[in-house]
Design goal:
Elements: H1 20-30, E1 36-37, H2 52-61, H3 75-87, E2 98-102, H4 103-113, E3 121-126, H5 130-138, E4 142-149, E5 155-156, H6 158-163, E6 169-175, H7 187-200, E7 203-207, E8 231-237, E9 249-256, H8 262-274, H9 280-283, H10 286-289, H11 294-299, H12 305-318, E10 323-324, E11 333-334, E12 337-338, H13 340-343, H14 348-359, E13 361-362, E14 364-365, E15 377-380, H15 385-401
Helix pairs in contact: 1-14, 4-5, 12-15
Length: 406
Amino acid sequence: MRKFEKSVKLNNVCYDIRGPVMDEANRMAAAGEKVLKLNIGNPAPFGFRAPDALIDILKSNLTETEGYSDSHGILSAREAIIKYDESKGIMGVRPDDIYTGNGVSELITLSLQGLLDYGDEVLVPAPDYPLWTASVTLAGGTAVHYICDESADWYPDVKDIERKITPRTKGIVIINPNNPTGALYPKELLQEIVKLAEKYDLIIYADEIYDRLVMDGKKHTSIASLAPDCLCITFNGLSKSHLIAGYRVGWMTISGDKSNAKGYIEGINLLSTMRLCSNVPAQSLIAPALSMLDDTDKLIQPGGRVYEQREFIYNAINAIPGLSVTKPEAAFYCFPKIDIEKFNIHDDEKFALDLLRQKHILFTHGGGFHWEEPDHFRIVYLPEISVLKEATDQMADFMKTYRQAD
């Protein structure tokens, strides 16, 4: 009997956020064991709810959004995105430069499939959001990881980026605000990256899904606003800022110099048309949501849930001997460092599994974000402080005696 194996195209594709450690957590949960899942930035399980007014709009639009839309998306949504882009300094965008998607994930994959031939390279940060590396690989390209430097607030190392550019390099991915580190990149750094993109004719892929979740009074700068002479593709959506991850509402904007990208844009149009359109009821939320940002702002101000939970996790992790963490400036995540000599850690996935089995706490090991050393992990700080306290107390107890066998 013939066996049906997975495609060889998937041989180097991984997504450990939902990988083997998650599989073990699901097995434990199926056996009746309680597991605290701190591995995925999904607000709903932790009691976050979308604004009531937004849900009411969705309900009222259902009978008007039963058919397919234009493959780019409904016009009112794209016009609202143009206004939002202009507010971020991204100018010259037309409705046909915007594509709505079933979340940003779909559009990342689509944009790379439309560009890459076998052997082409894309610069991707390390640590990364692993979908980027997986999508580059699945499209036939090679993800080349540049270093983000923990000692420099997790900013990209511009010299390392330039060292890794080759004649096969077609683009560079910038995740800002960053997942998994929570770093926010300053304008001056982004300008340096733009200079490299101009010098080497690179496409800039800007993942900015967390741009409305920036704390401490800081301001997010969209790299596309600094790069009118580069081809930029900027990704954004409502999943995080409006707490509707399950509705899958994302978009991408093509801006800058498109003069040498006619063929590429034709490819994107083809792929966009092949999937007909994104979820139309969800698209109908884009315009009202982008005029409804006050609820999001409350979460990230002192006294707001996200802000206070960020403060707690930062202090609690740094209070555990052998752990340290750089304070995140945005999003829902932090990326703590482990003193691997103290705990003899040589396998970060095993570390994650051991903590899961002993303390029933699930997080993603650093290798799941293409971080090469076994000395980091990502925690999602969406649970309420009482839950985070229980988790960090259990973690502190675990670390008192933990040591990996040689």
